[in-house]
Design goal:
Radius of gyration: 19 Å
Order of helices and strands: HHEHHEEH
Helix content: 55-70%
Number of helices: 5
Shape: elongated
Distance between the termini: 42 Å
CATH architecture: Orthogonal Bundle
CATH superfamily: Winged helix-like DNA-binding domain superfamily/Winged helix DNA-binding domain
Strand order of the largest sheet: 1-3-2
Number of domains: 1
């Protein structure tokens, strides 16, 4: 559960969600390229990337003098499965409530 907690904590920030959306396109991107698309400094982007790395949502790869970042989608799948499980539980509870109400009519 700690891994899913880290994903939700990382995605709680709108800038980090935007970085994830950018990386979801599949290309590797430098922090400078990300900063060019965001209203924040390269240093701020680096801090957001560090938070995403701690949550294992991005992978860093050194290419020459640059560090390029790529999305690691597996933790997103873990979080989606957790959400689906909670949603299924609530679906069952609501179905039980609907049956109970229908029986009282």
């Amino acid at each position: 559960m700690a891994a899913v907690d880290a994903v939700f904590a990382a995605l709680g920030d709108p800038t980090r969600r935007r970085v994830v959306e950018t990386l979801a396109g599949g290309a590797t991107v430098t922090a400078s390229a990300l900063a060019a698309d965001l209203p924040i400094s390269r240093q701020a982007v680096a801090k957001h990337l560090a938070a995403l790395r701690r949550a294992r949502l991005v992978r860093a790869e050194r290419v020459g003098r640059e560090t390029r970042y790529r999305l690691r989608p597996e933790p997103l799948g873990d979080a989606a499965r957790w959400i689906a499980g909670v949603g299924a539980e609530w679906d069952e509870r609501l179905a039980d409530l609907q049956r109970l109400l229908a029986d009282r009519r």
